[in-house]
Design a protein that fits this description.
alpha+beta, 14-stranded antiparallel sheet, 19% helix
């Protein structure tokens, strides 16, 4: 054999030792990460999660079970059997929720961002949540059952039936939510104590903008149905309770079916012209509206 030559078996042995030297540290790190994930004290985040979600929803939040695991973006927290309870006693049960680090440039500014996915009987909410006193949420709600919306959010029982999707952009300022919610619903109905008959609709859209002081501006609200069509806009003023909030709304009403025009005119106490049109101004409050 020529001096200095290395046999194939020797080269193979060195390659094997080199591979082992690389794999062993990587394997040790992987085991450490797995043990850390398995033994991580997830319950320490329970109070913070309950506090932040409660501030966004205006409710008391209790999480029964909090666990975790690995995801493509790091450790993911998983909650089950959470309860949101509002001051009026209304409660919402969340079946399961998942939180993990979100892909967001806000991390570079020292502002953590979390990807949130929540399933409940009310519907599903998915998006990005920024914890903290000046945090917020941007995302989408889908399949929301309008009839089950908490009364505290509407000033009373929901007058709507049907399922809706919503685009949500909210932030916390001074502990109160600000931002916008755009909603689109189909195949439902509108009814209530101040409405003499249930009004079916095929499509309902609109935007609510939450401004300073707790005032709400309604934009581009439209209802389309076989009996009635309507557009509305205006403001719902700030008040300790939404039920007492001052209304300043403009409503354009069209009674599509000519046979229903006299019935609607008598039931709502408004004048409908020969084309079935009426322009109204609504003041008062949600519980005691005044129609002019």
């Amino acid at each position: 054999m020529v001096a200095g030559a290395v046999s194939p078996s020797a080269r193979g042995g060195r390659l094997a030792r080199g591979a082992l030297a690389l794999v062993l540290p990587v394997g040790c790190v992987a085991l450490i990460v797995l043990f850390a994930v398995a033994l991580f004290p997830y319950d320490r985040f329970r109070d913070a999660a309950e506090s932040q979600l409660g501030a966004l929803a205006g409710a008391e939040v209790r999480i029964a079970e909090l666990s975790g695991g690995l995801s493509v973006a790091g450790i993911a927290l998983k909650a089950r059997d959470a309860t949101l309870r509002w001051p009026d006693g209304t409660a919402l049960q969340i079946e399961r929720a998942r939180v993990r680090p979100a892909w967001s440039l806000s991390w570079l500014r020292g502002n953590p961002a979390l990807a949130l996915d929540v399933h409940s009987s009310l519907g599903r909410v998915k998006g990005t949540w920024w914890p903290g006193a000046s945090g917020g949420f941007t995302g989408r709600a889908s399949g929301v059952e309008l009839a089950q919306l908490p009364p505290v959010l509407l000033g009373g029982p929901s007058p709507f039936e049907g399922r809706a999707d919503a685009e949500i952009q909210l932030r916390l300022e001074g502990g109160a939510p600000r931002g916008s919610v755009a909603i689109e619903a189909g195949e439902g109905s509108l009814a209530g104590a101040n409405i003499p008959m249930a009004i079916p609709y095929e499509r309902l859209v609109g935007e609510a903008h939450l401004g300073d002081g707790g005032a709400i501006e309604l934009r581009d609200v439209a209802l389309e149905g076989p009996m009635v069509a309507a557009t509305a806009g205006g403001t719902i003023g700030a008040a300790p309770s939404l039920a007492l909030a001052p209304l300043d709304l403009d409503l354009e009403l069209e009674v599509v079916d000519p046979n229903l025009r006299p019935v609607v005119a008598r039931g709502f106490g408004v004048r409908v012209d020969g084309d079935g049109l009426a322009r109204l101004r609504i003041t008062g409050s949600p519980t005691r509206p005044v129609v002019r």
